[in-house]
Amino acid sequence: MQIRNFRPDDAETLVKILKANQQYGHPEIDGPEAMQRVHDCQAAEFLVAEDENEVVGMVRGTYDGSRAVIYLASVHPAHQRQGIGRSLVLEIARRFRARGAGSISVIVPGDAGFWKKLGFRQTTRVMQAFPIDEVLDSA
Ligand SMILES: CC(C)(COP(=O)(O)OP(=O)(O)OC[C@H]1O[C@@H](n2cnc3c(N)ncnc32)[C@H](O)[C@@H]1OP(=O)(O)O)[C@@H](O)C(=O)NCCC(=O)NCCS
Description:
- The structure is a single chain.
- This protein has 139 residues and is α+β, with helices and mostly antiparallel strands.
- The protein has a single domain (2-136), classed as Gcn5-related N-acetyltransferase (GNAT) (Aminopeptidase, 3-Layer(aba) Sandwich), CATH 3.40.630.30.
- The protein is built from six helices and five strands.
- A five-stranded mixed sheet has the order 1-2-3-4-5, sandwiched between helices.
- The longest helix is centred in the middle third of the chain and has 16 residues, at 84-99.
- Coenzyme A (COA) binds next to strand 4, helix 4 and helix 5.
């Protein structure tokens, strides 16, 4: 198994993985065009795991010079519980630390068991305005 940077031609496979994990509710946020934008973003780390030349998982997040945040992690159901998720998170954490990050957070929509195993502790709650107009129209 190998961890490497995302390439745009990984997008189609990643969409299949996200769909298989019920993580593809918002293609405008997580689809191929958004993946391309993340790929182009200087603050982002976007990694994939490859097993026998097959892309089987991904993780992405940003470090803005102050805080590192993981936004999305996904491993194909047929490849879960084999250490791939851990390898992805360890590599993105190494990269964020190399950029200067002193902490790392994750946005977890569901079960937190995996993240607890990797040393994350629950602190703040995440609040979301979706669509963003909820904020713009609130005045
Ligand atoms: C969460 C996810 C990324 C974990 O990937 P994975 O490759 O299965 O995880 P690993 O095999 O590296 O597991 C690392 C450790 O966490 C544990 N673990 C994995 N999933 C777990 C869960 N849901 N609950 C509790 N522990 C879990 C493993 O048993 C392992 O512990 P061990 O080293 O003591 O055996 C993967 O299950 C997934 O894609 N799930 C669906 C999408 C999702 O929930 N993503 C996270 C939110 S962004």
